[in-house]
Predict the structure.
Amino acid sequence: MKKYAVVGNPVGHSLSPSIHSIFAKTASIDLEYHAVEAQKDNFETSILRLFDDGYEGLNITLPFKELAYEISQVRSSLSLETQSINTLWKEGNSLCGDSTDGKGLMNDFRAKGLEIKNKKLVIIGAGGSAKAILPCILDLCPSEIRIINRTKDKAKALSSKINLPNVSVSYSDLETPIDIEIDGVINTSSAGTLNEKIFLPKNLFSSSPWTYNLNYSESAKSFNSKALNEGSKTVHDGLGMLFHQAALSFEIWTGIKPDVDEAIRILRG
Ligand code: NDP
């Protein structure tokens, strides 16, 4: 039986084993998918040992996506841009990697009818996931991006990487009120997942037709309610993105495109 795993720390809460088991069932193939906790100090050794033990593909989650990028020998062009990898596999003796987070988010946007082209977007957060999704967002030609982050310098650093003639870019901290009309808000902060409070700027949601929160756990609910109460017309959590990025990994490993809508229906019962 083919074996796959998600590697992270902590990893016990991961939905990936359930999602990939559903994909395998709906595609009528047999596979095992495990959750493996790794340590930073011997991350590379642990990964190589898993492949030696017969694993055919690995997903990489917090906090190892940058490390996975560093140890990969063959990197997709997107992962070269994001400098983070969430999907590993072997070709011959080479360790290959790709980043499916951004494409997964864009597939979920498409499924939900959320438009990016010529839109003004606010991205909350400037960490790993913000870096991972930004190239895919820019590919769809927004007119304006404002990156807001608790640590302003990180927002500045991320925004300085965007250099496109038709995209207006700005950054600020979380205290500065929003002074532009917004078409959509994307929350990439980990405050919810970490069960921490997040201070948000005035007017953030007042003109926003939609809000997308990458967080998909129970703790996403308070952010989502705030967005709705303060003016956002619709709010989406990150469960769809999670399924879509997993589907892209599954396709890389098996060549089979899983039915994401059907898989979400099965998981939700
Ligand atoms: P990182 O640790 O790389 O970045 C965290 C970001 O959140 C930073 O910008 C940080 O700001 C900000 N932040 C953390 N705590 C607070 C707080 N209390 N108040 C304000 N800002 C805060 O994490 P990732 O980017 O990798 O992940 C972020 C979230 O995205 C997680 O919840 C994760 O679960 C989710 N995610 C969901 C996916 C999906 O498929 N749905 C895929 C990938 C991620 P600062 O710079 O100031 O520290």
Summary: The first strand starts at residue 2 and ends at 8. The chain has a mean pLDDT of 96. The chain has ten helices and twelve strands. The chain has two domains: 2-99+240-268, 102-237.
